């Protein structure tokens, strides 16, 4: 089975999220960092898509947002960091849906009607292995295995829980140097960091 390809008009971050949670990708590339590298390469797509990405590249600069998927990471207490946000306990209860045309599986944290590529998805059942497992929303945690330095579970504009990955694992934050901190926050418009379900919000919080 071929690895996922980016579809026409599919946003880069949406494709990477779909690619990262693909069953075939999880099987072929169990290492998350390696899987991300392959998905990132696949996300280049056509020339028109690349031009579109230049216009809509904010998430790719700071990180990316992905749906809750089969490879849910449950951090331990020592992994969590305090960024000054109000935390919220969330019990994971995820549901599997299938595209009737392609057979591709999708994971959602709410039961309802879901549509992908113009097709109403078929409910397959609960992912029982995640019942009762808790994560803390709005509280970032370290991700030593990548693909980014930090991740955080938050609710998006639709009320669904998503995972935001942010921070360059190869760079150190130097917010203890006032000039560096001021420069970063000015360059990235951190006075208006955008919504919590975007990586720029949390990158600004880190600074």
Order of helices and strands: HHHHHEEEEEEEEEEEHH
Task: Give the overall shape.
Answer: globular
Which runs of at least 5 residues are low in confidence (pLDDT < 50)? none
Described by strand count, sense and barrel closure, the largest sheet is: 4 strands, antiparallel
C-alpha Rg (nearest Å) = 17 Å
Count of alpha/pi helices: 7
Number of strands: 11
Strand arrangement within the widest β-sheet reads 1-11-10-9
Give the averaged pLDDT, no decimals: 81
Helical residue percent?
25-40%
What's the end-to-end separation, in Å? 43 Å
Give the structural class: alpha+beta
- Approximately how much beta-strand content do the residues carry? 15-25%
Write up this protein.
With 207 residues, this protein is α+β, with helices and mostly antiparallel strands. The protein has a domain at 1-56. The protein is 28% helix and 22% strand. The protein contains seven helices and eleven strands. Strands 1-11-10-9 form a four-stranded antiparallel sheet. The chain has a three-stranded antiparallel sheet with strand order 4-3-7, with no helix packed on it. A hairpin with a 7-residue loop joins strand 9 (141-142) and strand 10 (150-155). Helix 1 runs antiparallel to helix 3 (32-42). It is globular, with a radius of gyration of 17 Å. It starts with 11 loop residues before the first helix and ends with a helix.
Features:
207 residues; alpha+beta; four-stranded antiparallel β-sheet; three-stranded antiparallel β-sheet; 7 helices; 11 strands; 22% strand
């Amino acid at each position: 089975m071929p690895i996922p390809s980016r579809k026409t008009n599919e946003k880069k971050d949406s494709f990477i999220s779909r690619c990262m949670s693909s069953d075939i990708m999880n099987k072929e590339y169990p290492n998350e960092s390696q899987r991300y590298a392959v998905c990132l390469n696949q996300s280049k797509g056509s020339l028109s898509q690349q031009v579109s990405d230049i216009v809509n590249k904010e998430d790719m600069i700071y990180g990316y947002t992905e749906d809750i998927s089969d490879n849910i990471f449950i951090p331990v207490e020592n992994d969590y960091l305090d960024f000054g946000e109000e935390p919220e306990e969330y019990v994971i209860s995820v549901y599997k849906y299938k595209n009737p045309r392609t057979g591709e599986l999708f994971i959602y944290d709410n039961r309802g009607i879901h549509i992908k590529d113009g097709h109403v998805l078929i409910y397959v059942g609960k992912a029982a292995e995640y019942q009762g497992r808790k994560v803390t929303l709005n509280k970032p945690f370290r991700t030593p295995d990548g693909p980014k330095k930090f991740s955080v579970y938050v609710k998006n504009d639709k009320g669904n829980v998503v995972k935001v990955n942010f921070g360059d694992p190869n760079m150190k934050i130097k917010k203890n140097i006032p000039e560096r901190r001021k420069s970063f926050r000015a360059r990235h418009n951190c006075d208006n960091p955008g919504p919590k379900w975007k990586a720029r919000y949390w990158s600004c919080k880190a600074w």
